[in-house]
UniProtKB/TrEMBL annotation:
UniProt xrefs under CDD domains: PLPDE_III_DapDC (cd06828)
Organism: Butyricicoccus pullicaecorum 1.2
GO annotation (BP), single: lysine biosynthetic process via diaminopimelate
Active site positions: C342 (proton donor)
Name the UniProt record assigns to this protein: Diaminopimelate decarboxylase
Length: 420
């Protein structure tokens, strides 16, 4: 059982809000760094191991810098993610470009930066040829179809996923790329999302290792790396157990020893592209209770809304909530915790048992470090919040300012209505 204790206290938040009013996303530098070191330790058995942080999960350059200091690269899927990675000093093969439905400009920039390009589809080979010369190292994304099962439990349905190439296409793609001069190959797959099961990576790794051995035998291609991509989950709910990254690393090692080593492929590097596992638990959304409403249900209304954190509205996702200063109070009140969008799905929690909330209380919405701020939007003219870093020494640093109305109107400069 996971206690779900916030990494920030009421006293700290009372200090922070003097400089940066709510709502804001807060990130825990200490937690990020400690977790990054555990990940590296879990895969230390593989000398080529490299984590490419999935930039889309939390595209903030200050956080990318911290991860770079910990030795992580960047996994990008768009032009601006590539620009941001370049801006923090990521170059060459420290950038993985795992995109889909890729525009020509994006491929051109990835090639210019020397990123490793991971083709989502076989037709991208001809598309790419018109844009840039083929690098010596390239990767292909695999979609085995069917259901992805762990011990007969269906984890996800690759047959319905738009990503990746079929098994015959992989062979054809490798052959074609070899004929274009590509010398070193990667193999990538992302088959289940937010898995809270230590078996996900090991089962996926075994599948990819077996496929890599076959591809090597069929085509003679040199397989340089296997990219396990993302999908390692976090316990959003207090009753869930966290993944044990050491057990995950060990499970992948076992598959490696059993499949790759006997095939004479013991030099293959393991790459990962984790987003959620790297950042999720080390961010939270801090918001203030503005209103109470007693109608057919009991509502507490916050100064944050789904535009700051879309997951509950979009997926019905659970995010744990702590009322700061009332950590030990009994959860004897049932609330819907809402934002102010004109959308009834703008609820951070429905029928949630919480301590009695007063106007002005600060609430921590947990686990927003990945796919939190990143999925924000401007519906109802709501402005994106600030992002604040809680440094290891307890001080804070503004790492993104809150949007202003001027930011919101900036792209309307073409109309003449909002001229500077
Ligand atoms: C989203 C994504 C990731 C990161 O996924 P998480 O579930 O956040 O770990 C990695 N690689 C690719 C290609 C992705 O689309």
């Amino acid at each position: 059982m996971n206690q779900k204790k916030p990494f920030v206290t009421l006293e700290q938040v009372q200090e922070i809000v003097k400089k940066y009013p709510t709502p804001f996303h807060l990130y825990d530098e200490k937690g990020i760094r400690e977790n990054a070191r555990r990940i590296k330790q879990a895969f230390a058995w593989n000398p080529g191991f490299h984590e490419y942080f999935a930039v889309k999960a939390c595209p903030n350059p200050r956080l990318l810098q911290i991860l770079k200091e910990e030795g992580f690269g960047c996994d990008c899927s768009s032009y601006t993610e590539l620009l941001m990675s370049e801006a923090v000093g990521q170059v060459g093969e420290d950038i993985m470009f795992s995109s889909n439905v890729t525009p020509a400009e994006d491929f051109a920039l990835a090639a210019k930066l020397g990123a490793i390009i991971n083709f989502d589809d076989i037709t991208h080979i001809d598309f790419f040829e018109k844009i840039a010369p083929f690098p010596e190292t390239m990767s292909c994304r695999y979609n085995p179809g069917g259901d992805f099962k762990i011990e007969n439990e269906i984890m996800d349905t690759p047959q319905d996923a738009k990503y990746g190439m079929t098994r015959p296409q992989l062979t054809e793609a490798y052959r074609k790329l070899m004929s274009k001069g590509v010398k070193h190959f990667g193999l990538h797959a992302f088959l289940a999302s937010n898995t809270v099961a230590n078996e996900y990576y090991p089962v996926l790794a075994r599948l990819l290792f077996q496929t890599a051995v076959e591809l090597h035998e069929e085509t003679g291609a040199h397989i340089a790396f296997i990219n396990l991509s993302g999908g390692v989950g976090i316990p959003y709910r207090p009753e869930q157990n966290a993944n044990d990254i050491m057990a995950i690393g060990e499970g992948v090692r076992k598959a490696y020893e059993e499949v790759l080593v006997p095939a004479g492929m013991g030099d293959v590097a393991i790459y990962t592209e984790m987003g959620r596992f790297v950042m999720g638990p080390y961010g939270c959304l801090v918001a203030k209770c503005l209103h109470h409403k007693h109608t057919h249900k009991e509502y507490v209304g916050l100064d944050a809304c789904a535009a700051n954190l879309m997951r509950p509205a979009m997926y019905g996702a659970y995010h744990h909530i702590t009322v700061l200063g009332k950590e030990d109070a009994p959860c004897d009140h049932k609330y819907d915790v809402t934002g102010g969008l004109c959308e009834n799905n703008d609820k951070f929690a429905i029928d949630r048992m919480l301590p009695e909330i007063d106007d002005g209380d600060y609430l921590v919405i947990h686990d927003t470090g990945a796919h939190g701020f990143a999925m924000g939007y401007n519906y109802n003219g709501k402005l994106r919040s600030a992002e604040v870093l809680l440094r290891e020494d307890g001080t804070t640093e503004l790492i993104r300012r809150a949007e202003t109305p001027e930011d919101y109107f900036a792209t309307l400069d073409v109309t003449g209505v909002f001229k500077k």
